[in-house]
Design a protein that fits this description.
Elements: E1 2-6, H1 10-21, E2 25-30, H2 36-40, H3 43-65, H4 76-99, E3 104-107, E4 111-113, E5 116-119, E6 122-125, E7 128-131, E8 135-137, E9 163-167, H5 171-183, E10 186-190, H6 201-211, E11 216-218, E12 223-227, E13 230-233, E14 238-240, E15 242-245, E16 249-251, E17 281-283, H7 294-308, E18 322-324, E19 330-334, E20 343-349, E21 367-373, E22 378-385, H8 389-401, H9 420-428
Parallel strand pairs: 1-2, 1-7, 2-3, 7-17, 9-10, 9-15, 10-11
Antiparallel strand pairs: 4-5, 5-6, 8-16, 12-13, 13-14, 18-19, 19-22, 20-21, 21-22
Length: 431
């Protein structure tokens, strides 16, 4: 019998690949472009633009040091053109990869009708179904919201805005503000509550002082109206600038309305096996809520696929590493299961590892703060700001998930300079 996957983002694409590897008969249905939000509208677009802003930041620093004299002229339309070219290439590669396992890919809008999925006037009978339809930007219900941009519009705008009001207080708002501030916009972040509440306060303060010092941040501030080039606050104050909504995401769960149980926030309710209230329908990725991260969606898609093929497994959400893609990356992870009252904290300037040499003179190598459970000799939390923080924290989070004792780090042999942070924090500062 056929296994049908609806949605080809990280969860659906990896789920269909896993099913193909397990020799299942697979049909993958995608409404728009293969690889979903991540490649086409989300994190890959952010990463592409951030690569450019890092170059701009380095160029500024080298000019200040006096050994380089250069002027940068930015062509935003050429940037978006080359991003789109790269996306088209990656879509072809992703499709070839999926089809190499014998999977069939259909482009069209799917509808579930009993044990069949209808697409392009064709009915496909399934024995197991994976819904991986992702999520879309949440647009606040305020007057003039049609003037607001979202991440879906980044590759569509004609030029870099002179002024930008980023509405939202999370990671996406932070990344968007950093990109357009570095590209030359006057940027303001307007957060309904606290900005970056998920980040340690000391790391947040470093970020605002050293990485995004050109961005104005307004916390505990509500927007009541938008215009084409303005926002109006609840206080009545009018601020000029293009509105950009980074106010969360809404699950694309309408496809299973009245078919499976839906949570109050409209996400699809699943158990630890990624199974819905219907035993032959599974769901994975952003449509199920939780941590909306590409690696989590991948894990969930693979988990669901294995269960659909009767290889029972489940995911453990523990010590999940996260990052904010800026000119200097900000990464963090916490082991929520550690409840010890005996916590020791070490805070140090970040290590001069890869990408940091030319930041040392300006004292901009970053910041690291690590909390240890001194009673059980284990890491509880890491907040790291450095050019290598994404790899450092990803590596250390794995050791946290494996429940290693800090003494077990004693035999860790680093590769200089790529894992010097691990060496400094664990072997030099602690052991």
């Amino acid at each position: 019998m056929t296994k049908v996957v609806i949605g080809s983002g990280p969860a659906g694409r990896l789920g269909s690949l896993e099913l193909g590897k397990l020799n299942e008969d697979v049909v993958l249905i995608e409404k728009n472009h293969i690889a979903g939000t991540c490649l086409n509208e989300g994190c890959m677009v952010i990463c592409a633009l951030t690569d450019i802003t890092k170059f701009i930041d380095s160029n500024r620093r080298f000019n200040e040091y006096g050994f380089m004299k250069s002027q940068i002229e930015i062509s935003y339309d050429k940037i978006t053109e080359k991003i789109i070219e790269t996306q088209e290439l990656l879509r072809k590669l992703n499709q070839m990869e999926n089809e190499s396992f014998g999977n069939k890919i259909i482009y069209g809008e799917a509808k579930i009708n009993g044990n069949e999925v209808e697409v392009n006037n064709e009915s496909i009978e399934y024995d197991k179904l994976l819904v991986a339809t992702g999520a879309r930007p949440f647009i606040p219900d305020i007057k003039g919201n049609e003037y607001g941009l979202t991440n879906k519009d980044i590759l569509k705008i004609d030029k870099i805005p002179d002024e930008l009001n980023v509405i939202g207080g999370g990671v996406i708002a932070c990344e968007i503000a950093n990109i357009y501030s570095t590209l030359g916009s006057d940027v303001r972040i307007i957060a309904r509550s606290e900005f970056l509440k998920e980040l340690d306060v000391d790391a947040k303060n470093y970020l605002l002082k050293h990485i995004m010092n050109d961005v104005e941040v307004m916390e505990n501030t509500d927007i009541v109206e938008c215009g084409k080039n303005k926002v109006i606050l609840k206080s009545g104050k009018e601020l000029s600038g293009v509105p950009f909504f980074a106010t969360g995401r809404v699950p694309n769960s309408e496809i299973v309305d009245n078919i499976v149980d839906i949570n109050p926030d409209r996400t699809i309710k699943v158990n630890e096996f990624m199974q819905t209230s219907s035993q032959n329908i599974y769901a994975a990725g952003d449509v199920t809520g939780g941590l909306q991260l590409t690696p989590i969606a991948r894990m969930e898609g693979i988990c669901a696929a294995r269960n659909m093929a009767n290889y029972m497994n489940k995911i453990e959400y523990k010590s999940v590493p996260q990052t904010i893609s800026l000119n200097t990356e900000v990464s963090f992870v916490e082991n929520e299961e550690i409840k010890s009252d005996n916590i020791k904290t070490i805070a140090i300037p970040a290590i001069g590892g890869p990408g940091a040499f030319w930041k040392i003179l300006a004292g901009e190598t970053g910041y690291a703060k690590v909390e240890f459970d001194a009673e059980n000799n284990k890491i509880k939390k890491i907040n790291s700001i450095s050019p290598s923080s994404t790899s450092d924290v990803a590596y250390l989070s794995y050791l946290m998930r494996m429940d290693y004792n800090l003494d077990d780090y004693g035999n860790f042999l680093e590769i200089h300079p790529s894992t010097d942070t691990c060496y400094k924090i664990i072997k030099n500062m602690w052991l």
